[in-house]
Specification:
The complex is a heterodimer of chains A (about 500) and B (about 500).
Chain A lengths: L13 H24 L5 H17 L6 H19 L5 H32 L4 H5 L5 H18 L7 H8 L2 H11 L1 H10 L7 H22 L5 H24 L5 H28 L5 H19 L5 H15 L3 H29 L11 H17 L6 H6 L3 H23 L13 H17 L13 H13 L2 H20 L1
Chain B lengths: L3 H16 L4 H27 L5 E7 L2 E6 L2 H24 L6 H20 L3 H19 L5 H32 L17 H18 L8 H4 L5 H35 L3 H20 L4 H21 L3 H32 L10 H4 L1 H14 L6 H15 L3 H26 L14 H19 L7 H9 L9
Antiparallel strand pairs in B: 1-2
Helix pairs in contact in B: 1-2, 1-4, 2-3, 3-4, 3-9, 3-12, 3-17, 4-5, 4-9, 5-6, 5-9, 6-7, 7-9, 9-11, 9-12, 10-11, 10-16, 11-12, 11-16, 12-14, 12-15, 12-17, 12-18, 14-16, 14-17, 15-16, 15-17
Classes of the chains: A mainly alpha (about 500), B mainly alpha (about 500).
């Protein structure tokens, strides 16, 4: 690898233009929305975090080398902590702590991955990464990057991270996080991974992880209690599809280009649609009853796009994904292909749940100035995948408008509606498990505490907050070994051990 | 010329003692002029070394015994760090100690420590290095016990016993080395080609010398003195316990691996791997302990233990990039950690805030100070484009190149843990608290400006990492001859 050689290299190819436009537009719309809706008290503090985050987030699209990519990525991730904790409530502080811990983990994995990939490629330029030949180093680096992406998008078992942050951040910030920040993960996949040069096992593992994330996130999200929580689980589910697309192109060079195209289309479509839903979920509950109907109807557009209803951008994205799977052969790709329409059923159910929850939410009325950002995102949702023809994939353009394809795309949504109607008619009440956004992650501090307490049982007379077992154990051990006789003995033993080890 | 970086501080120290306690202004002037002169001398030596002329000089002490110095890039990097930061620390210390007693003693020994540290940096052979190393240990003692409290005396005694234990091991190792290999000089890539057949003896020599250096480098479990020595005044903690003394330990390891045994011999003897393992364990354990420290100085002390182990690990990996990263981190960690110790000292002196729990409102009261601290903290965690990132990038790259992928994971998880023990300090400072915004200066300007200066250095060193004069480039140039003229 070149040591610090080509830092600060910027590129403007078609990928960066696509992602750059998505990021810029979403961060801008979220910023405008925040500017007109946030109370003036904490506004400057909010923008002290929002502006660096948006700068870093948008600049990742144009980063051409590992160091500038990592710098922009970290700037966005670290500054976003201020957005998550903006409200200053206990819940937001807890969310911030979990977010920061996962960010630190993700950054560590990403850095290790970047170092490994640039060592394997002998260059820090990202263009060298994607063309890497198969090697253990490349696989190791790619696995680390995939881990970092998994943490960022909340792959199983971390699916709680997206809903947790969306539910606590202000609406404008949540839109930016959902529309732009998570899509940086998609960009990471496209920019860093040597598609087609990885072992089949890695590819299959990523496909399985992606598909599992998609379905589990839907299952959990159906029981979420807030509109933005539902949207968060929907995001986790959609990002699972992005991982699925990436996984299918990692090993087989036949599917490489199709997989990249599918990731781009999915990211573009989901970025705009989710940001539009986020802002809409903040505007609509504050409207007068008449306007509320209009607002809800407008919101249906991005919702239908997510389900993949024909002629929406989501339809193009799903079609591109199917194309990738068709290019592969084997048991797993065929199984995944068969299961794919069912992800549409899941998304449709989630969207129905979203409107149901939203109908019960009330917020303060938003000024008319909150509309433009939202409407711009709606327009972008309607047009994005069609305005970037390359993004939809070439095969998609050819066969997409044939009747069978349209029918295939319609039935998941219809099935979901029929399912809900049938349940209503049969007066079956679904169980009311109220899942707080964050699910398992909220248990993580408890689990750590419980494990600590279990380890600390023999010494349970200590006050509660000293019971954190592992650090306490280290502290106690340390106190012993810095006492004189022990330190002197340790010193002698250290010398002897070092020589004994080396003599072997 | 080569003796100047050692002689100037030594003379300044002597003059400080002669001027005595009363003549504050003259004493400060002498010290500041000496610091400027020493910095100029060291930098011009570095300039000459970059031209490729490594000067040497020696001073006979007795039959077969001489004190010898040489100005190579590795040594001068350390000497420049020590000397340049001496000037900054002097300004800070003059403000910090303005109401203290026994200032002549303090500044005198302080200058002598600098002289000894420069001696360690420039020493040409193991014996000269040992002599300066022991002088450094002795001169630091009065500074640790400066306040004269029972706690300080106890810490001082602990420090002295550790230092002497380490010194004894080092002496034994050096003597044995001379017995089997004759008088050797540090040579990039290794100086022991003639003695390679004595594998058993060489392993022992390495173990003894490494153990001696590891005491000062605070490698676990030999780190006990460092957190205790935090009772010393903040300028001492800043310069000595973050820069000169502990760095003399890791610098010794760098010399031992790169210039005495050489990476090749160290690997083939199998002595580098155990050292690397000990360093990796230290990074993990010290970072986790740091998470639990409420006392700010102790938290920083454990962070220092972990960060020094970064350098030791990098050196012990025996690859060019890791070795360069280790040297670069020696300089980068110096500016980052000195910023933090300055800040903590300033908080203690201005607001009497010494523990995490009482930090509420501090950021409102001392915004510039805490902003500088934040920069240093993020730099230490390896956030690009700050200084810590540049060295971590090299270290991690070197770890990957050596094939020791576990070391790569150690480095990045160390970074995550750094974020874990630094962020609580930042958060505590922005919580609401009793402190009101300051009227004019948030603290003594003589303490404020040095903090801003060193914080800026940790930005500049990172941003300019690929500029030819940056510590990172310097380190790459310095390790080049160690690996047979390797270039990045």
């Amino acid at each position: 690898m070149t040591a610090l050689g080509s830092a600060w290299l910027w590129v403007a190819d078609s990928t960066s233009v696509l992602f750059g436009s998505l990021f810029a537009l979403v961060w801008l719309a979220g910023g405008v929305h925040s500017y007109v809706t946030l109370p003036s008290a904490g506004k400057h503090r909010f923008f002290a975090y929002y502006l660096p985050a948006s700068l870093g987030g948008t600049a990742t699209a144009f980063a051409g080398d590992a160091i500038s990519f990592y710098a922009c990525f970290s700037l966005m991730s670290l500054a976003s902590w201020g957005l998550v904790t903006h409200s200053g409530t206990n819940a937001s502080r807890q969310a911030g702590a979990i977010y920061l811990a996962l960010t630190a983990l993700g950054e560590a994995l990403l850095l290790a991955g970047l170092v490994a990939l640039s060592s394997a490629a002998g260059s820090t330029e990202l263009s060298a990464f994607v063309n890497l030949a198969p090697s253990p180093g490349a696989t190791f680096g790619a696995a680390l990057v995939l881990g970092a992406v998994g943490v960022k998008i909340g792959a199983l078992p971390l699916i709680g991270i997206l809903p947790l942050t969306y539910a606590t951040a202000p609406a404008g910030a949540a839109a930016a996080l959902a529309g732009a920040s998570t899509k940086v993960a998609a960009l990471t996949l496209v920019r860093l991974l040597p598609f087609g040069a990885l072992p089949v096992a890695v590819s299959e593992a990523v496909m399985v992880a992606g598909l599992a994330t998609t379905f589990v996130a839907v299952a959990v999200g159906l029981f979420a209690v807030s509109a933005r929580g539902v949207l968060g689980y929907s995001s986790a589910s959609q990002m699972g599809l992005v991982m699925l697309a990436a996984g299918s192109g990692l090993a087989d060079s036949a599917a490489t280009e199709l997989a990249r195209g599918a990731i781009l289309t999915l990211a573009l479509h989901h970025g705009f649609a989710k940001a539009a839903l986020m802002l809409g979920s903040d505007v609509v509950p504050g409207l007068s009853p008449g306007m509320r109907r209009l607002g809800t109807a407008l919101l249906a557009l991005p919702a239908l796009a997510l389900v993949g209803v024909p002629l929406t951008t989501g339809f193009a994205a799903k079609y591109a994904l199917k194309d990738v799977l068709l290019a592969l052969s084997g048991v797993l790709p065929e199984t995944v292909y068969a299961l794919l329409p069912w992800t549409g059923v899941g998304t449709a159910l989630l969207m129905l749940r979203f409107f149901r929850v939203l109908a019960n939410e009330r917020t303060a009325a938003r000024s008319a100035a909150a509309w433009p950002g939202w409407v711009v995102l709606l327009l972008a949702t309607a047009s994005a995948a069609w305005l970037w023809p390359g993004a939809a994939g070439q095969a998609a353009e050819r066969g997409m408008l044939a009747v069978p394809a349209l029918v295939t795309a319609l039935w998941p949504g219809l099935l979901a509606v029929m399912l809900v109607v049938a349940l209503r008619l049969a007066r079956v009440r679904p169980p009311r498990w109220n899942v707080k956004p964050g699910d398992l992650l909220l248990l993580a501090p408890l689990a750590v505490g419980a494990a600590d307490a279990a380890l600390a049982l023999p010494r349970s007379r200590r006050p509660m907050r000293d019971r954190s077992a592992l650090p306490a154990l280290l502290l106690r051990a340390e106190r012993v070994w810095v006492s004189w006789p022990v330190a002197a003995t340790a010193f002698v033993v250290f010398v002897l051990a070092l020589s004994a080890l080396t003599a072997g | 010329m080569l003796w100047l970086p050692i002689l100037i501080p030594a003379l300044a120290g002597a003059l400080t003692f002669l001027l005595g306690e009363r003549r504050t202004r003259r004493r400060n002037t002498v010290n500041l002029i000496a610091a400027t002169a020493a910095a100029a001398a060291t930098l011009s030596l570095a300039g000459a070394a970059f031209q490729g002329t490594a000067a040497q000089a020696s001073l006979p002490l007795g039959p077969g015994l001489q004190l010898a110095v040489r100005g190579d890039l590795t040594g001068l990097l350390f000497a420049c760090v020590v000397t340049l930061l001496w000037g900054v620390t002097l300004v800070y210390a003059i403000g910090y100690m303005s109401h203290d007693r026994n200032r002549a003693r303090f500044f005198g020994f302080f200058a002598w420590c600098i002289a000894a540290a420069n001696g360690v940096a420039l020493a040409r052979d193991p014996l000269s290095l040992f002599v300066f190393y022991e002088i450094l240990s002795l001169c630091t003692y009065p500074l640790v016990v400066h306040s004269g409290t029972p706690e300080a005396i106890a810490a001082g005694r602990k420090y002295l016993l550790y230092a002497f234990g380490g010194g004894a091991a080092l002496l034994a190792g050096t003597a044995w080395l001379v017995a089997i290999a004759g008088p050797v000089q540090f040579t990039p890539g290794g100086a022991l080609l003639a003695a390679e057949s004595h594998t058993f003896a060489l392993r022992w020599v390495f173990a003894l010398m490494a153990a001696g250096f590891c005491v000062k480098a605070a490698l676990m479990p030999l780190h006990g003195w460092l957190p205790s020595a935090m009772v010393a005044p903040a300028p001492v903690s800043s310069l000595l316990h973050a820069v000169a003394v502990v760095k003399a330990g890791v610098f010794g390891i760098v010399r031992l691996v790169n210039d005495l045994f050489g990476p090749e011999l160290a690997t083939s003897l199998g002595v580098a791997q155990p050292l690397a393992l000990a360093a990796a364990v230290t990074i993990g354990v010290a970072s986790v302990i740091a998470l639990r420290q409420d006392d700010l100085k102790r938290r920083l002390a454990y962070s220092t233990v972990a960060q020094l182990a970064y350098i030791t690990l990098g050196t012990a990996l025996c690859t060019p990039l890791a070795a360069a990263g280790a040297l670069a981190h020696l300089a980068h960690h110096a500016v980052m950690k000195i910023t933090m110790f300055f800040t903590v000292g300033s908080l203690g002196q201005t607001l009497h805030v010494k523990v995490l729990g009482t930090m509420g409102g501090v950021a409102r009261r001392m915004p510039l100070t805490m902003a500088s601290f934040s920069v240093a903290a993020l730099a230490l965690a390896g956030v690009p484009p700050l200084a810590g990132f540049a060295s971590k990038w090299l270290l991690a790259g070197g770890a990957f190149e050596s094939g020791d992928w576990w070391a790569l994971l150690v480095y990045v998880s160390g970074g995550a843990l750094t974020l874990g023990y630094m962020v609580p300090i930042l958060l505590a400072s922005v919580r609401p608290g009793a402190h009101e915004p300051a009227e004019r200066w948030e603290s003594d300007p003589r303490m404020l400006w040095p903090i801003i200066a060193v914080a800026l250095a940790s930005v500049v060193f990172g941003v300019s990492a690929s500029a030819p004069w940056s510590p990172a480039r310097w380190a790459l140039a310095a390790v080049s001859p160690v690996f047979g003229g390797w270039t990045p």
